[in-house]
Specification:
- The protein contains 17 helices and 16 strands.
- Helix 2 packs across helix 12 and helix 15 runs parallel beside helix 16.
- The longest helix is centred in the last third of the chain and has 25 residues.
- The chain is globular, with a radius of gyration of 22 Å.
């Protein structure tokens, strides 16, 4: 049984939308979220305390300017950046990543990721599959959506999966529930006002040509803005008033337990508090604020500024609040031109953010319970083009993992002297996902879901994790 339209309308009209985001929770926004959360309870499955932070480097990160420099290659290959020694004997990284290099014993570096679909979306980094896989029945589910299916509970005050990805819309809209259905879609608060990312004209024109289904907006969930959730003074009394009104009217009793979960998420205040990262002490905010020369470089207009490092602070706060999976992105690694000045600005921000997150998780005793993966759609061409850029290169991609029991202090795989062909230990996206699922305590070999046709589907086609990552 659900709330009647008239009772929902009365509650909605009683409070002004400017002050109360949740005023729509028993009307269109709330019932939509309730629909997203409606599903079978995962009977008999215990919640895990393990979590994932999935960091997407939007556009495709260059292996040469990150974790696989080639100092002995010709200039048109190695580019402008120097290689520096890391804390691991004999292991070098780009000069743009000094902080990660200083803690290299805590990271696992994968230099030989293969099998990229070559598409400018983040779907493969969300699920392990190209976007076309099982498209006829809805597509493959993102890892976070699987976690929501297995570990989300009706009484939760925070969603199991929060998606904060920005950047190009085809990346931003890549964390999808697939054949699991919209009940397990991610919760997507809008952080674009806090962390802006402009779209280049070419991307805007491309999206316009694709039609109405591809929005130019960077908002994530209509009306659910970062600042509105952040305005605790205006929202707190409204949350209490609405709860009392719903209880008096019997609306809460009328909602099924999945709609009540939607209500819990929107009215508990726990999600809003987690998103309000300015509650952190000044020392923590400073930790997530880069002070490197790279952060002072002139930013390309589609790139993010130094404050984007705080996205990882936001991710940590969400995990602390009980979220199981957080997806976040950094833009813009799509460097068909001006690769070197753009990477001088952007890579040090990511370097600083990763080191800050690792240190923060470690000091809070969370590092063994939170697995972090960092990657993008593909790598970049070994040869620098005539515009000083590197183009798409699906043949070899970089990835970084840490935390969650991942065995750090190692490099997995190798590329040739130009950084273009994998010569040792090729690693697939599904192998990385098998390891991520293992870190979550999910047995991919024995976990299946029924698709809309009634057929059982495994989470992955290849269920063997990377043994090197697990000691």
């Amino acid at each position: 049984m659900t709330a009647s339209p008239s009772s929902a309308h009365c509650v909605r009209e009683r409070y002004h939308r400017r002050d109360l985001l949740i005023a729509g929770a028993v009307s269109s926004l709330g019932l939509t979220l309730g629909d997203l959360l409606r599903a079978e309870a995962a009977a008999g499955i215990r919640s895990s305390v393990k979590s994932i932070i999935n960091i997407h480097l939007d556009g495709g990160p260059p292996q040469h300017e990150t974790i696989d420099p080639k100092p002995e290659a010709p200039e048109e290959i190695r580019g402008e950046m120097r290689a520096i020694a890391s804390r691991l004997p004999g292991i070098i990284l780009s000069e743009l990543m000094p902080q990660v290099a200083s803690a290299a014993h805590r990271f696992a570096f994968v230099r030989s990721l293969v099998g990229s679909a070559g598409a400018h979306d983040g779907f493969q980094c969300q699920s392990g599959f190209p976007a076309a896989s099982l498209r006829e029945i809805g597509g493959r589910p993102a890892l976070g959506c699987v976690v929501a299916k297995l570990h989300g509970r009706p009484e939760d005050a925070v969603p199991a999966f929060v998606d904060l990805m920005q950047g190009r819309p085809l990346v931003r809209n890549s964390a999808r529930p697939g054949y699991l259905g919209p009940a397990y879609a991610p919760f997507r608060p809008d952080i674009s006002a806090e962390f802006s990312r402009e779209l280049e004209p070419g991307m805007q024109n491309e999206l316009k040509a694709r039609g109405a289904n591809h929005t130019l907006r960077l908002t994530l969930l209509e009306g659910l803005t970062f600042h509105r959730l952040q305005d605790r003074m205006a929202l707190r009394s409204g949350f209490d008033d609405i709860r009392q009104e719903l209880d008096r009217s019997g609306t809460m009793a009328a909602l099924d337990r999945f709609q009540q979960q939607a209500m819990n998420i929107l009215t508990s205040g726990k999600l809003a508090e987690a998103l309000d990262y300015r509650r952190e002490p000044a020392s923590v905010l400073a930790r997530y604020t880069p002070r490197t020369s790279g952060s002072e470089a002139k930013a390309y207009y589609t790139s993010e500024g130094i404050h984007s490092a705080k996205k990882l602070l936001l991710a940590r706060r969400l995990i602390e609040a009980g979220v199981r999976c957080v997806s976040v992105s950094f833009s813009d690694f799509d460097t068909h031109s001006q690769n070197f000045p753009r990477m001088r600005q952007l890579v040090p921000i990511v370097d600083h953010a990763l080191h800050a997150l690792l240190t923060d998780l470690d000091e809070r005793g969370m590092l063994n319970d939170v697995t972090v993966v960092v990657w993008g759609e593909f790598g970049r061409t070994p040869r620098v083009n005539s515009k000083g850029g590197r183009d798409h290169w699906p043949q070899a991609s970089p990835a970084i993992l840490f935390g969650g029991g991942i065995a750090g202090g190692q490099v997995i795989g190798a590329t040739d002297r130009l950084g273009g062909a994998v010569t040792a230990r090729p690693v697939t996206f599904q192998q990385i996902f098998a390891s991520l699922y293992r870190c979550l305590g999910i047995n991919v070999a024995h976990t299946t879901f029924l698709d809309p046709t009634g057929r059982p589907q495994h989470l992955l086609e290849h269920a063997e994790p990377l043994p090197e990552l697990h000691g």
